[in-house]
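Usage

Read records sequentially. Each one opens with the input sequence:
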Amino acid sequence: MNKSSLWDLRNVVFLLLVSLIMQALFLNPPILSDPLEYYFTATKFPHLPEQPNHWSLRIGLILPVAVLYRIFGNAEIAYYSLPLVSMTIFSIGLYFLGSRLFNRRVGFFSALWLIFIPSVLLESGILLPDIPATACITVGFAILVSFKDLHKNEISQAIKRKNNWLFFLTGFLFGWSYLFKEYFIIFILLIPVFFWVFNISYRNLIPIGAGILLMFGIEALFGLIYYDNPFVRLLSANPRETMGHIERDAARIIKFFPILLSRRGGEGAAILGVVGIINLIIQTIRKDKPHVFLLSWILLIYCFFTFLGLLPIILSWEDTVLLRLHIFRYWSPILPPLIIGGVAAVEKYLIKISQKIKLKDYIVNPLINILLVVLLSISCLRGISLIINNPKLIRNGADHYIELRNYLSENNSPDEVIWIDREKKISFDRILPIYIHDFCGRKIWDGTFKYLNTDGQFLRADEITFGKIIIDRFYLNSKYHSFPDYFTAHPENWTLVFESENQRIAIYSIE
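and closes with the structure output:
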């Protein structure tokens, strides 16, 4: 292994460890909403709902989780593996993208900056498609950037064949990002821009297109087999209702991203982004190729997302949106060019300053590394200090499911019966199968489930005469969900036998 590859290996291992450690420290419990709906759908695969929905149609997420489920069964490792690995791949892809556009230092510090953004830390361990899709795009462009000087060299037929497979792989990754989430199709517009900027032959678009078309073909076949319609995925792009506040202020929609990035102590990342954009504009005017590409990426995503955010206002839609842009994770595709552009700008100006004060060459590189570490630390420590005690983290008291598993393990019996609700994405049938197993899928409780409701109708309290019942108190006061009265006003024959420390989950014994 040559010295250059050894440095890459060391940096990748370091980033892998940092990413996994930070995600473990800031891990959320599984969420009874979209994340567990994706997981629940994956556990039923190849059996899917008769009526298509956006959970069952995003097969880029469903298929890998279904594979994990087949390996581990119902287990936390099956739930957490995809988001944790995706975030790690995202940071490593960003390292290689920044390294090949500029240098290893830019790539390395860009990856670290990404890992330590507060909002990224809080969202990266959740089973949702945005970060995995962005990881695919980032790795895809990291591969493409290795061909940016292709036009300068004569290459053999063997290398051409190898290159064609790599181009096909990038098309596969771009196509898979679309299978994760449909709006990532917009990146098809950025690929020819990349080829134009770096003077790469457009003939190489053919293997990329083949990779993308393969993914479209898989989706069409999937739709045809399950729903007799190869274009059923288009349904998921329709305007849909969403719970909560619908933003009608156009000015606020335009400012969504900087506002979200600055939250939870993310001002350092926001300032880095501003510095990066200013430098990108200056260098684009000077026709510097890497900067032209990164600025094109930022403009494409920002303009596209903002347009989709404004469309409900323009068309006077009521209570429907295309993208929930008030949620940070939706903006993850804009992070790679923004962070790389910012770190590259900071490095450039630090070099200029060191040249002006005429520092010795052997001092410049170590000094710039130290200054970048200091700037990164200042930026990240503020954010971490604001989220480190977040009550939604497992280590800060949101370990109610782990407490529940410990209780079930200590009270294991094949004769035990537990009543749970089902049929809704906040129902306990989504989460409890995970926690009757340990982290890696070994079963720790041998009882059986019975269901409180069928086709939306709950049993009456007097029809539940034995066993135990689990209640999640978190949703009881929600205006969006309804439950029987006995969820809050418990009958006299119910005895509390378990309550999580945060009082969210309770188990009652029925006598």
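Summary fields computed downstream for this record:
- The chain has a mean pLDDT of 90.
- The CA atoms of residues 155 and 509 lie 74 Å apart.
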